Amino acid sequence: MKQIFKVGLLVTLNFLLLTSLHSQTKQIQFLSGTDAAHTVQWDFFCTAGRNSGEWKKIQVPSCWEQQGFGNYNYGRDYKTNGKNFRFYDEKGMYKYQFKVPAAWKGKNIHLVFDGSMTDTEVKINGKSAGEIHKGAFYRFKYDISSLLNYDKPNTLEVTVSKMSSDASVNNAERLADYWVFGGIFRPVFLEATPKQYIDYVGIDAKHGGSFAMKVSAKGLTQNATIVTTITDANKKVVATVKTPLAKTADHVIVNSTVANSQSWTSETPNLYTATVVLQDAAGKKLYELSEKFGFRTIEVRRGQGIYINGTQVKFKGVNRHCFWPETARSLSKEQELADVLLLKEMNMNAVRCSHYPPDNYFLQLCDSLGIYVIDELAGWQKAYSTQAGAPLVKEMVLRDLNHPSIVFWSNGNEGGHNKELVDDYAQYDFSNRTVIHAHHRPGNAINGIDCNHYEDYYSTEKILNDSLIYMPTEMLHAQDDGGGGAAMEDFWNLHWRSQRSGGVFIWALVDEAVVRTDLNNVLDANGLNANDGILGPHREKEGSYYALREIFSPIQLKLPAQLPSTFNGSIELDNRFHFTNTKQCTFYWALVDFSKPFDRFDGYIVKQKGTITAPDIAATKQGTLQLQLPADYKNYDALIIVARDPYGKEIYKWTSEIKTKQLQLNGFVTVKNDEATVKETDTVYSITGGDVTIVLDKKSGNLVTTKNSSNDYVLSFNNGPVLVKGTASVVSSKTYKEGNNAVVEFMYSGDLHFVKWKMNASGWTTMEYEYAVTGDAPFTGISFNYPENYVISSRWLGKGPVRQWKNRMAGTPVNVWQNLYNNTHTGYSPVVYPEFKGYYGDVTWMELNTVEGKLYIASPDNGLFVRLFDFYALSAAAKPHPEIPVGNISFLDCIPPIGTKLATGLTTNTRVYGPMSELNHVSGSKKRTLYFYFGLPKTTDSKENYSRPAVDNVF
Known about the structure:
The chain is mostly beta strands. It has 5 domains: 27-193, Galactose-binding domain-like (Jelly Rolls); 197-293, Immunoglobulins (Immunoglobulin-like, Sandwich); 313-551, TIM Barrel, CATH 3.20.20; 563-659, Immunoglobulins (Immunoglobulin-like, Sandwich), CATH 2.60.40.10; 677-934, Beta-galactosidase, Chain A, domain 5 (Distorted Sandwich). The strands form 16 sheets. A 9-stranded antiparallel sheet has the order 49-50-51-52-63-59-58-55-56, with no helix packed on it. The relative contact order is 0.08. Residues 299-516 form the Glycoside hydrolase family 2 catalytic domain.
């Protein structure tokens, strides 16, 4: 009996202790779910559109359109309806019952909304909680202490109006170029604090260890003391300071210094924790909170650049909306993390939170993983009024002020700047960050920074030579397959070398195609309006993702595409880190053999590998990486070099071919000594070698048909070669023997000089040709036809995995790749990446698998581009895409650049985006050899039994 009493007493004492501890900290009770993946069901009534007019259930947080209610609206819709915004208005009425602990009686209790679109009216137990909140993307709260029942359930009623009663709120948030939604889309929760508590702290921690903090206390009934304890990531106490606080003061400033502090940067995201305790005069703890922060100093040095911790930094950034196709503006924590990891994968160091503040969890991830952030007040191209905007600035800054990742406040976008609000930011931001204007018109520069949008390469040069810091907060609009990584190599090199550059921010991270719950869940990007991403709607990796990963790599290796025969192991290295010495990184080499056309895997197999001594090259400096390769390195297909950052994350992987393409074709393109034959009629030549017969038209010189007798394959590959640029007419033809090979040769007038078809008894057909084109051309080479709907897949040794443009070759290393046929149009269902159709460079061999059989193409020459079919490339009103060659399978020696939707003259004037975006300047003759096999080649070569290696683990 005594033992039971002791146990009961212990449990009671622990409960009292736990209650006491909780009473000294902020207690949280969620009424909704915590994110889009963890929701709570509330009662819901929608006033218009789908499922309206009756009470139903809805998941909270959510956008109600994605729950099957109301109507879909894209921001541009309002323009088509003039000023009648109310046409699009819907209201959502929410009800939810909840209980609060009896122990909360006597505390301050706030009801907190993290985001609600748009006007939000709140009642507790039938009584108003306060004024209607206007503004969708901000944390707002009500003191509901006096409205609560502590002995029975409480009823929460929320009415959310999709359109605001304040016209300036609609202008700033909803008259925009993105989907607009309705509903409580971020969490709702209760906060309980003691009557005497700390409302918030504002931290200003500088590089070098100086620490200052504004502590705002409420409800003090006596003089108090603030005890601040600073701990590092290992929970080691590095500083403690006591600061008196008079009961008549609403705040106090705490000052301290941390010796040997580790600074916060995107490369070194070192975080500390400040634990702040409010004590009464007797030393009793009244309240406690903890806040993470980082030591870092941000300076805008006018006419020089942006400096972090005394070092000039250039942002490699992108614009991001909070968006997921199924849940719209509501996101899960896993999706937030995925976006930050994708930024890091692309070697970006910055993000602009357009066009509104993001979820708080996203900022926490940027703090801990190292991403510089521009936090933005909404205002797409029109601004909040001062009356509407002032409380929203306060809400944004007070929620976000201690995130070390935030380097600037953006006071709206593209003309949506209320300059009367600029001074408001410093009222709440104790560290007094710089305020910028993300704008697209000259003359809106502020605080020494010009953020003008969508300048071309040459106007960018001019601006960078002017007096202001230039940091375009939108550039290279990535609509469809244009912009983004295309032309960025020229732009980034220009910004990297310019003193007054603050870096760049691309528009935009993802294609914002929403899953339409009213249209059988199809993806809808609102025509061309919302498919602006480097990534697809579900973060599929588009071509620009791969290009930017290489272009933004902080380690730049000048590794040639083909390793020279005189290679001595020395490779030039440009260290483009801002703070990291290359000796902190790790480097590896591997000698690899590519899989062969008949092997069972794609990619390569590592034959030998080793480490490379990391060179001592300071940040932003140049040097060399020295390899010690084995003596037999020339026996392998390619050299691969991998660089990893100080945390072990792969920065990039470079590939350089060692063997020539002719050597790599050994054992694939076979030769037999038996005799090939040729037959001639009045109209055609028929050449036969082994099982393969090709028929050539005498008049045009074109391939008519092909057949493989071993399996009765008839491949509809024909109607070529045709010059894609230039003219050609057959003037003569002849047939002859070249050893045992049968040859048909055509001579032409015009720009095509000759085409020589040569058949070997193995069935392999060689086509040699020469042409000459002079001038500026989007492409040069030859084309054939093949029915697109017959194609199943392709497999090739060449650049990949995505298609290329002349100004977007980066990020596509040579390897063996494979792709199933698809007809992806960015932003539309079905979305399959990589796209199948397009230009593919540096091809050694390609296998097209078709319903008629297999077609093999190869070349021993460098620089072959293969174009596959007509493809959706860049949509624009005047011209749907850059010019595409005649025919639909082309063998090219150069390919066109791609522009953006904002190029002057649309896709016809890509040259304004820099040297790589100019048309090809061609002159002189070009000779090339192609090998074809129509059907499945027979081979008696023994093949090594490769098993596909785990490529990610080979280093």
